[in-house]
Amino acid sequence: MERRELFVVERKILLGNEAIAHGLLEAGCSMATSYPGTPASEIMTTLIQLKKQHGLSCHLEWSINEKVAVETALANSYMGRRSAAAMKQVGLNVAADPVMSAAYTGVKGGFLLIVADDPGPHSSQTEQDTRQFAMFAKLPVLDPALPSQARDWIAPAYALSEKYEIPVILRPTTRVCHARQDMAVRAFSKGVVQPVFEKDPARWAATPKFRYLLHQKLNEKLETISRDPFWQPRLLNAAALNDPTELQTPKRHAKVLVTSGAACAHAVEILHALNLWKHIPIYQVPMPYPLSENFCTEVLDIAQEILVLEETQPVIEGQIRDRNKVKGRLSGHVPKEGELLPEIVENILRRFLHLPTAAPTPPSALARRPTLCAGCGHRAAFFAIRKVFPKGIYAGDIGCYTLGLNLGAVDTVLCMGASISQAAGFYHAYRQAGQNTRHVVAAIGDSTFYHAGIPALINAVSQGCRFPVIILDNGTTAMTGHQPTPAAGITVDGITVPAVSLEALAKACGVKHVSVGDPYDLAGFTELLQAAKAHCQDSENGGMAVVIARCPCLMAHARQEGRPSSAPRPMVTDRCEGCGFCLKYFECPALIFHGEKEAVSIDENICAGCGVCVHVCPHQAIAWAPADV
């Protein structure tokens, strides 16, 4: 497939995810799909901006979930066109079914699966390592150390994908996605590759008999890919060691460092800082799987001891296979969990090189715990839920509303869509034990419901469950950057499409009792919850109930319209006793506690003026300010 020569237009300081977006467009990606998830969200956001700025013809979409994103982009690559699907590491779990199958069927046009891992973790349920998933799926995986590498490896990754007709995984981590680096910005490919689908049922619709043959071919591909010269481990300081052909004319070293990803960037800086750059060989592994067997053999030959620095699982370490020489996570020389921060890498290197331990890093100042924004409708909804179901089990879900934990209104958070499924499990357990009076409530965001809540709701209805589902509808995917939901009725290109109604979906799932209310109207919303509770308990005509708490996200709304200066606002009166009820059970960050028996105050800089606190205070000590105050 011909690609025109890329040339430098200018230089910019780009976020890692922005650099990845540039790399995709430079390499001629004709379709990119994604589901928002930190740390990957800015990839699609940047693609959308660049498409508009440069009048590009590629198809971009925020898909309903990661599985759909992969399946859609794969079809494009079946027709010889370069494609990409971007997500975070736990999103790959959702896409696992098509990804595993695509390893067998392969592709025609280059296909990149961009999966942003989150060692730490900073904003995820797990620290899972996509490189390990790649081994499981039998797909090559690339592990860049810098934003520039993440961008520069995209074109050769597409070439690798097309040469061997196999999906390729690009695995940046949080420190690559959210780092910034100065780099050359190149021209984008504007050529259009015409789609050509060659029918081949034995491949694209393979039955188990043919899958066996495809598996054989896959294993052969991986063996060849492991020897591809472009992706071989690189001796970064060959010139400093005065032997630029180290692997061709190896000599023995007491200590050798093998590393990949962000840990590689940290190790390079630390070796320079310790004045050891010219003494310790350091190899970067661009493709941790499949790792070259020749490299494993040769590095074992030249080293007395090998330290492997990688996040977060022993993928490289396990492939080198020498427990006597190789030090890493398996040997206990590297922590078995957590992010390899620079200070951690330094101390690992110091121990490996028998140097004194570095001075401990002073602890950072304590920060205020994360909480829902001032005026967030979710806070009012959770307050009402606890009031109507005071001793309930609250099954929560993934989103900014997970912070309902602080309000005592979230008891479980497992994965996208699990609130409804787990609430069903709690319900069946109580019913089977004869404890029919114990209340179970599921709370799920609007975007999460579209993503993974629909099958769970259908299952709950079809299994005869009776509990309320509260859909927290703020009209956006707020946690990851305010991406639109299917209710918006508009594509990323501004094209009007049919809006998908939450109410209609809930009814189509078989729910008879569906209501919608504004949680700012605390009394009215509480009545809706009471009615849903009664419906669930109705022995003859009851069943599942869905209550949609509809209140626009204030952050998204403020971006568009701002808060009017004439908006009414609440005020604290002299009836305030400083009991702290409003802070403990409502926890609005605009309310400031000054100590026991001291009146609270309201921070006017962040108060949204929702006025819910007026109804929350048990002493009626918060009231609407007069118009002239």
Report what the structure shows:
The protein is α/β, with parallel strands linked by helices and 629 residues long. The protein folds into four domains: 218 residues, 3-Layer(aba) Sandwich (Rossmann fold); 122 residues, Rossmann fold (3-Layer(aba) Sandwich); 184 residues, Rossmann fold (3-Layer(aba) Sandwich); 55 residues, Alpha-Beta Plaits. 36% of the residues lie in helices and 15% in strands. The strands form six sheets. Strands 3-2-4-5-7-6 form a six-stranded parallel sheet. It has a five-stranded mixed sheet with strand order 9-11-10-12-13. Strands 14-15-16-18-17 form a five-stranded parallel sheet, sandwiched between helices. Strand 2, helix 2 and strand 3 form a beta-alpha-beta unit. Helix 16 packs across helix 20. It is globular, with a radius of gyration of 28 Å. The termini are far apart.
The CATH architecture of the largest domain comes to 3-Layer(aba) Sandwich
* CATH top level class name of the largest domain: Alpha Beta
Q: DSSP strand (E) fraction?
A: 15-25%
Main sheet summary: 6 strands, parallel
Number of domains: 4
- The 3D shape can be described as globular
> How many distinct beta strands?
22
N-C termini distance: 70 Å
Low-confidence stretches: 1-5
What is the H level of CATH, i.e. the homologous superfamily of the largest domain? Thiamin diphosphate (ThDP)-binding fold, Pyr/PP domains
Average pLDDT number: 91
Q: What is the CATH T-level topology of the largest domain? A: Rossmann fold
Helix tally equals 23
User: What Rg, in angstroms, do the CA atoms define?
Assistant: 28 Å
